[in-house]
From TrEMBL:
The protein's name in its UniProt record: Cytochrome c domain-containing protein
UniProt keyword annotations, A-Z: Heme, Iron, Metal-binding, Signal
Gene3D superfamilies: Cytochrome c-like domain, TolB, C-terminal domain
Any Pfam family matching the protein: GSDH
Signal peptide bounds: 1-30
InterPro entries, per database record: 6-blade_b-propeller_TolB-like, Cyt_c-like_dom, Cyt_c-like_dom_sf, Glc/Sorbosone_DH, Quinoprot_gluc/sorb_DH_b-prop
Limits of the Cytochrome c domain: 43-117
Gene Ontology MF term list: electron transfer activity; heme binding; metal ion binding
Amino acid sequence: MKISLPKTLLLGLTVLSLIFACSNSKNMSADDLADQGDTMPAHDFSAAKASYADFCAGCHGEQMQAFVDRKWKYGKSDGDLFKAIKEGYTEDGMPSYDTTFTDEEIHELVAYIQTGIANVDQYEFEEEEKPVGDLVTEAMSVRLDTFASDLKSPWGMTFLPGGDMLFTEKGGELYRYSGSGEPQQISGVPEVLAMGQGGLLDVELHPDFANNNWIYLSYSKSKEEGGETLGTTAVMRAKLNGNALSEQEVIFEALPYSKTRHHYGSRLEFDPEGYLFLSVGDRGNRDQNPQNLDNHCGKIHRIHDDGRIPEDNPFVGQSGAIASIYSYGHRNPQGLSRHPETGVMWDHEHGPRGGDEVNMIEKGKNYGWPVISYGINYNGTTFTSKTEQAGMEQPDLYWVPSIAPCGSTFVTGDRYPAWKGDLLVGSLRFKYLNRCIMEDNKIVGEEKLFKNIGRVRAVEMGPDGYIYVSVENPGFIFRVVPLNS
């Protein structure tokens, strides 16, 4: 399959291969990927890259493609950028480089920066690209059917054995829905701290639900301490009987509690052996939490279905380490999916400004946050100059600019033969569904699906073999119907 790559006209002279918005970093560089997608010779930006590193990175950050994801006060045309570099805007802290660079060097730096701008602009979908009617994708044609509407912020969803869907509303409600009529609210859910990114989050069934009726809910749990309301990520299990929960039991509670209201993580997924994997974000404390094993935050955890710790977890018996930790060095993982063939977990997580990641999760591995990252601070400054370090895993895929990934699933069954085995990832920021094309357990390409569908919060495979996608504010759940299978 040929991967279509966007291009940009640089300097009005040469059509250059656009550097990918993402990089399959375990196998090849972004430049390598761009070269494969086009027969045009790759432009040598080595001099411009060196100029950026020497004169621009100190203020704008090491990652040019992250820096250009911004609003351009003085414009972003070739002429606008040339003027800004040559003459500067001293009132805004931008010095003149008239005596530092020749005009030719400035033009080359402008061309280099334009590759990053075009990389961002590819996500600015046109209004007429709304996913209505029959949609022709790279490999098949599909239609979006509305499964549920008039929702607010559906965060997690799963399916009961009879086909009914369970879905959470971030505000604190759990619903059961058959696909017709009104969703039925389920009583007995935990009290949640519905502030910021917190609320009632993911929902998952026990693998043997048909016999034991256990369901699992992740949510933001609160407590009062020192006159402040603190919050954390917690997991409750309870038995579902009809439209009511009973025998509620908190089986996981991340420590420490925090006064922040973001980076809860909160995805739930069982593996083939019946272990429950769950994600916890760094809670906004990147300097203390993700790299230290003495807390639950910035980690993927693995527990038994009742909260007990598996004896073969990687840090069991290690002094000062939390025994439930399976992997660490994560920022805010809001996607967690089991590979249908290998059974291995894959996560995706939010980067800062740039550097969203997809990772294959391996036992005991360190995924680097915040020591290594392909992103920068939200204010454009740099918090690390490293994108790799010994003993830390490289992402299988990363996005610059950040797409704000949320929700994921692997495509299974026979309804979508051209997509079978691929990983689907939702985008909150750019409001589309990202198809990660998989071959031999590696991501080899991407396709943007359902542009302007809305802020994608979750994507799941239903027992009927259809893909279901939820979006928020306004809230809908869509069913993806193939037309040429």
